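ok here's Immunoglobulin-like and fibronectin type III domain-containing protein 1, seq below lol
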Amino acid sequence: MWKKSKVTDQSAAGQAGIRKKSKVPGVMITQFQEELPEGMSTPDFTRKPIALTIQEGKVAIFRAIVVGTPTPTVTWSRANGEIVFHPEVCIQKYDEASHEHTLEFPKVAPEDADTYKCFANNEHGRAVCTVVLNVIALGFSKTKELQKVQTEDTTDFRNKLKKRNADGTREEKPMEPEERVWEILLSADKKDYETICVEHGITDFRGMLKKLTEMKKEREEEIAEFVSHINTLKHIEVNDDDCATIELDMDLKDPSSKIFLYKDGVMVPFTKEDCDGQKHSLKQVGKKFVFTIKGLGKDDAGLYSVDVGGCNVFSTNLKAPDVEFAVKIQEVKAEERQDAMFQCVLTAPYDELKWFGKKAPLSNGEKFEISVSEDRLIHSLIIRDCAPLDAGIYAAVAGVKSCNAWLIVEADKDPKGKKGERKSTMAGGANSEELAKIAKEQQERYDKEMAEKIEKAKQAQAEREAAEAAAKVEAEAAKKEAAEAKAAAKAAAKAEAKAKKAEKIAAARAAKEEAARRRAGLGEGEAGADGGAGALEELEEQEELEEQEELEEQEELEEQEGQEELEQQEGQEKMDLMTNLMKMSAEGGTAADGAGGADGAEEGEGGAEGAAKGKRKKKRAGQLVPDTVIDPGVHFHAGLSDCKAIMGEAAELECKVSSEECKGIWYKDGEEIKTDMEGITITQEGSFHRLKIHKVTEEFGGKYKFEADGRKTEAMIVVEDPPRFVAEDLETFKTPVTVKKGHKATFKLPFVGRDPIKVQWYLEGEELSDDSNIKIEHTEGCSRLLLTKLQRKDSGEVKIKLKNEFGAVEALSQLIVLDKPTPPMGPLEIVEASSSVIDFKWRPPKDSGGCKIDNYILERNQIGHHGRRYCYRIRVETEMGTSELMETEDIQAGTKAYPGQPSAPKVVSAFKDCINLTWSPPSNTGGTSILGYNLEKRKKGSNLWGLVNPPEEMIRSGKLCPVKDVVEGMEYEFRVAAINNSGAGEFSVPSEFVFARDPKKPPGKAIDFKVTDSTYTTLSLSWTKPKDIEGEEDEAKGYFVEVRPAENTDWDRCNTNAITMTVIATNEGGEGLPQELDNYILAMPPPVRPRFTDAKIKSFMIVRAGNSARFNINFEASPWPEVTWLKDGVPVSKKVTISNAEGMSQLLIPSAERSDTGIYTIVVKNIVGQESFSIEIRVTDEPKPPGPVDLDENVPGTVTISWTASPDEKKDDRLHYMVTKRDSHKRQWQTVADLIFNNKFTACNIMPGREYQFRVYAKNDMGSSKPSESPKWLIQAKKEKFTVTLPESKPCDLQCAPKFIMPLKMHAAPQGYECYMSCAIKGDPTPHVTWYRNNISLNTNTNYFISNTCGVCSLLILRVGSKDSGEYKIAAENPLGRAECSTKLTVRE
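and the structure came out like this:
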């Protein structure tokens, strides 16, 4: 059984975990919930990874299999650092067939040795296990040595990056390529490392990562000197307004630190404000820094670096491809619910074109479709289903170039407000043939330019090679000449030396002959002859030695020349190695391979030469990197891919090799597949090899392999058997089923697929189940649905859905239930009701019953015997029967029905002798057609209307009616009445007054148009009346003010968005030209830095545990600020409820616990600044009493009280103790000590013979606990003989008049607090005391507490009010005299 234990830390956000042990040893499971939903389970390992100890350079693979519902997500991590997922370093894979997760190291290295963890997570829990990878490192490795060549100067690169002047600026010089690469890598994202390495020719990926990690650590230490925290670093982005921005969010330790901007190592000047004349600018808002580069061009490309003080913080690369817009995007006008297209053509192929919509980047999705032509020149953006909100400015950005255009969406003028139907047409989009023609021209021009550049490059390469060859020939000729001169000098010296030697030998021989003659003639001189012969032998030996020395000297000279040549060749080889290591080999070979070949050549020749000459050293011969490339043999251009095959259908595997002549062998599960195997066809077309299975069955599933020339590729064929339908059965099922009401309908559809298959039936989207009228039958390979007692409302879409482990499929059909039609729909519309004709119309029925309407049946009923009123009944007739009737109201025939009122006449134009009017006919024609109109006029100020047209001549039309009977300068109004067969109807509403005069000129533009004030909902504007220019601009009589949002083109009402405004002056001559504001206006109050408006804000709050804690704070800020609450410096938990309203924020802890104690800080921040305030909230409760109390006497006359601490002492740092005592002499409890923060106290003045008892209380901010009592304490007193000597008494007279021993003091008390006055009086007999306020006795006033104890007189006022202020006096009186004392009481507000 699994053991459960609570986890103190949190396993998921806001969730406490329960740890469990797995059945697999070494696996720990954390469950996030107490109880799991039915059918759900936490992750677990059925196979965990096994520890590996493996040799360096081999393949290491960790394998794991996990289970859980829902399916867990598997991730890997390592103890030291992070795992770098790269095809050459580490690969994470998942095999769907075996459900196996693997972590593979293709060539394991010593730095891969570590402890790894495998995590399996789902929403219900997490499982984790650890595994160790040990790597056995090998000895000397030539590859490592070559890698050192590439990375040995990294330290020098770091030192170069650090070279700075005294003020923190860099040295003014362009960056070297090595510096540039490392600076790019230091600021790049991990996902971009591979791309950067390929771009700059770095092949040692592991070495780069190792050195980069070291450099990053050093850089972080340097940054920490100037910057305390960095949140966001955004690489350079090109916007749609030809600007580029670099964003950093950092907290500077010293706000006065200097910030520098460099481009390719050269400082770039910039301004702190956004000025039009400056290309580079820096804008700072709080901790956010934004660099802007305006007017982008090709010269702006380069590496931009941001330095703070003397440290590089961030670097980003701006690329400027050589591309421009041949055809820019154009403005598009689209109707609502129509698609819109923008298109542009570039001058060169480009893949990374970006689209922006209303300043926001766009991406492919349901709303936007981004496409590019095959030649990568024509780029398109399609906006689907345009709505008015989609209107705005759209832009295309290619490198540093951009273009933009408006999208205008015309809204549907549907008065009912219904959403219109989707339109299939496309708005915008230029002529595709024309664009293709332009693109072709640009492609030809681009190809021509590229060919010219390639030709120039070839010429430059040929010239460079010719110059190098000439220089080499000259160097060899000079070397040969020097060698010949040296050889000639040697030969001359050697000949001279030989001549001298020959002379010496000749002299020695002559001496020898002379000695021989003397010995022969005289028989003497033997010694001399021997001496001559010895001299001759010595000369001969010396000659041989000299010849040997000359030979050795010549060999050494030749060896020295060979060594010089070897050193020169090795230097060239090293340069070649560095060059090759900085280039990626496109043919699969590396510089390391070339180096190895060179070493082999060296060893071979060295060995041969060593055999020939034992003393001569080895010489290097041949090139270090051979010019010829060894044929790697056949390799795969495209390998096999895993395939999911459907049972009964065809499946195909395909791969492509590098050679068309290559033959290969196919294998299935390790066994060779013969070409004549039934059901399989193997073909080869050029370099493509294919294996086709004509009809897949279960036995065809497995692992397939293709092998050619020692190379192989593998793939899995997984056979699936999802549910599916036979085509003929499906077509039959799709045929709609039509039945009559009350009958039954049957739907039946066979299917195939692997069991178990879940079958579901739906009617109009609602799933069906067995019922009294519904019956579902399932048999093997077939399902049947029977619907009985059908009604018209049951008509609709019938759907069957099949699902198994391999997939799901659906089929649709229609059910049509026929029934009688519903009655016709009203209301009845009377077209004409004359004495001879009644013409009316109605609407068709709401439901025709599924049949075509044959005709309508009308019945008429005459109301009354002699009347002319009629009633009609109307029915609908179809093949299913006749509908219920619709009965009309009574219709009166032959009565006079006058027309209604036309619209008020509208003035089209006015002149001094003519006024042109127009109006609309009445909506109510009285049942007959309109014959004409009567028009009347009236002067302003008059009550008489006069007919304009003669009584016998009606005005036939109201489209345009001129009125010429007018007097110049007079003001008129007009009204009109319609006439039909019954006569003239009522007159319309009068028109507006109009002067009979020639048209005036429209006024000019308003002057000095500006905004005087703004809030979130209002804008205050002011302007000056336009000038009155005779003959050009007349006086303005009024003004129209128009507004529009910044992103819209239509002038309309104002709202809270940024708006632009115009004012238009108007008079009788029309409207003048609009006067616009220069810039957009943001509808908001002036910026205000956040500040708290409460006069007094408490900074400390005590809350009882279990109660709610609520804290309100008011503030003001503009624009709307961002409000953040923190607890002890971190965001508050989800338990705390934050409510923000206008100018107010509330923090609420619903049920406070002791763990909620802390310092809560509110941070109010906007673009102007920020403000914060902190409050300490202490959650506590009445403490529990302390433990048992012990008493001990360490010093006579004292007692030490000790007790066990209260259980709440560790939870409450403000908890303390209070000690009280009681003795047998005074039976009242007295406090002897308070604010004790330890568990011991010593009480003094303990009297022998008295019995003592002590109580200890625990106290905190909420109050005191119940006491813990000590046992009784008694020290027995030693009894001695007691004697009393009484003194002699003398008679004494103590009588005296009253006298104040201690007078009253002045008092000043706060309102609402208590006030205590006292004084001391002596007198005998005891005086009578009376208190007065403002000379009014207080002895009988119950609002004052008066006491007199042993001559101490006191007056107590419990709650001082303003009425208690004044003069207080006390009078003491006895038979011997009277005494008074007074004071004043001041009450403070």
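fwiw The first strand starts at residue 4 and ends at 12. kinda neat tbh
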